[in-house]
């Protein structure tokens, strides 16, 4: 079982700030949260070491990469055995079109966030990844019209 990390108000405020901009200098973070720069750096090191901060990434606009279509794909599996679920998870993890994926409860077993340049690319993806998999019972595609809340927008951590 994963150990739950204790987060105080300073930790939560730091996490809120670095979620918005992980390139913000420690000096600016320190001024904003009311700690010394060295205290901020210690806290950030601890949060990374304890797995609270799992990555420092750059969010790239999909259109800049030619990936103008975003779909959420709800996938229902024929069987739900561990081997089947693990095999499907490995398969989608290896597909460049899949930007995020979740194993979920309910009518669907997986939700995939898929980004492609065209409907032709999406059709190629579905044929290779979903249609030809005997363990995929069905899938439903939801095409995103526009993003309303960006992934990097912080949640209410404080």
TrEMBL record:
Example GO molecular function: sequence-specific DNA binding
Protein name in UniProt: Lrp/AsnC family transcriptional regulator
SMART domains in the cross-refs: HTH_ASNC (SM00344)
Superkingdom, taxonomy of origin: Bacteria
Source lineage: Bacteria, Pseudomonadati, Pseudomonadota, Alphaproteobacteria, Hyphomicrobiales
GO biological process, one term: response to amino acid
Record's keyword terms, sorted: DNA-binding, Transcription, Transcription regulation
GO annotation, cellular component aspect: cytosol
Domain HTH asnC-type: residue ranges: 7-68
């Amino acid at each position: 079982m994963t150990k739950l990390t204790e987060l105080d108000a300073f930790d939560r405020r730091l996490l809120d700030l670095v979620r918005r901009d992980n390139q913000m200098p420690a000096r600016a973070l320190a001024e904003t949260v009311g700690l010394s720069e060295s205290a901020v750096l210690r806290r950030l090191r601890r949060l990374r070491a304890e797995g609270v901060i799992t990555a420092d990434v750059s969010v790239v606009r999909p259109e800049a990469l030619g990936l103008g279509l975003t779909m959420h794909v709800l996938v229902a599996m024929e069987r739900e055995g561990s081997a089947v679920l693990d095999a499907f998870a490995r398969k989608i993890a290896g597909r460049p079109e899949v930007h995020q994926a979740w194993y979920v409860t309910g009518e669907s077993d997986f939700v995939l966030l898929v980004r492609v340049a065209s409907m032709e690319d999406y059709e190629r993806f579905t044929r290779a990844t979903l249609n030809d998999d005997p363990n995929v019972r069905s899938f439903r595609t939801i095409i995103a019209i526009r993003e309303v809340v960006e992934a990097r927008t912080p949640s209410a951590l404080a």
